[in-house]
Amino acid sequence: MVGARPRRAAKASGSAVGAVNALVFNGHGDVLLQKRPRRKENGGLWDKSVGGHVSAGEDFDATMLREAGEELFDDAGSGRVRLAGSEAEFAALVSTTADLSREVVLRRLSFQRNLRDVRRAPAGGVRNVLYHVAIYGGRTDVGVRGFRRQRSEIDALRYFTVADVDRMLLAGELAPNMAFLWLAHAYPLVGFTGQSGAGG
């Protein structure tokens, strides 16, 4: 249980904070990333497709639906985000039911307890936060112009190839927690697209 504290107090206490992370791929095997505003933590760096904190009274799946709606369509209740309850339901949505040209389909892949995150603070310095994180994968064919990013949280949205993200990781262009997500979870996700995802 994460408990119900204001986010700043929970982070400062050293207690684990509930969070959600998603990597969303298109049919070409490219991953959607967001660029963090300079005034925010990890400012100026490229980060996961969707991420956010669990609010009091929410479960992780409800948080993911809300955050994906807010960050990708500027609407917490957006009907353009669908969450599958199983691998079979996800496969059915992606192959036959969902309109991927306008929708994002997600499913939960794993749950990581006590993940220690290192963040760049907006004014410089380092912040350490302990997270319990639900990790999701997603599929969409929405083009970048089809999204309506949450401007207060995201400077830009862009698709990158697997090789691009590998290069960005080595060049220090990714938010620190993206290294964990990318190295531990990305390769199987490329299978959502039917692409090999193999870098040179």
Element order, helices and strands? HEEEEHEHEEEHH
CATH topology: Nucleoside Triphosphate Pyrophosphohydrolase
CATH class: Alpha Beta
What is the average of the pLDDT values?
89
Radius of gyration: 16 Å
Count of discrete domains? 1
| Low-confidence segments | 1-5, 195-200
Strand content: 25-35%
Shape: globular
Number of helices: 5
Helicity, as a percent range = 25-40%
Tell me the number of strands. Answer: 8
CATH superfamily: Nucleoside Triphosphate Pyrophosphohydrolase
Architecture per CATH nomenclature, i.e. the level-2 architecture = Alpha-Beta Complex
Structural class: alpha+beta
The main pleated sheet reads as: 8 strands, mixed
Kindly report how far apart the N and C termini lie.
43 Å
Structural description of this entry:
The chain is an alpha+beta fold and 200 residues long. The protein has a single domain (7-190), classed as Nucleoside Triphosphate Pyrophosphohydrolase. It contains five helices and eight strands; from the N terminus they run αββββαβαβββαα. Strands 1, 2, 3, 4, 5, 6, 7 and 8 form an eight-stranded mixed β-sheet that branches.
Key terms for this structure?
alpha+beta, eight-stranded mixed sheet, Nucleoside Triphosphate Pyrophosphohydrolase, 28% helix, disordered N terminus, single chain
